[in-house]
Design a protein that fits this description.
Blueprint: H1 17-27, E1 30-33, E2 38-43, E3 47-55, E4 58-66, E5 75-76, E6 83-90, E7 93-101
Antiparallel strand pairs: 1-2, 2-3, 3-4, 5-6, 6-7
Length: 108
Amino acid sequence: MTTNSESRESTSTRPTLRELVLYFLRLGALGFGGPIKRIYTGCSSGAISVFQMDDPDHYRKLEDFPVQKKVHSLAVDPETHRVYAPEQEADGKAVARMGVYEAVVDHR
């Protein structure tokens, strides 16, 4: 993904879903849970949205997991599937702490 309008042909093609996912992964706004193929994104409104990657072009939303407000960056440990999200607010008060969340994996 790029902001330079000259780098794309004169056709105004939109980026693919895959391009968008890779772009936001690089920004730290998304985390990818490797083998379980989960994508996590922090929503400043107070949730981490969880998506399942069925294949590179098909994703489905699993849930909005409630967290403190203003959580927007996160990282995922690909081995443990833990999601780490720095929190800057807790119940409306300023904090500096790391939230650690466990992925729930259905082994059916």
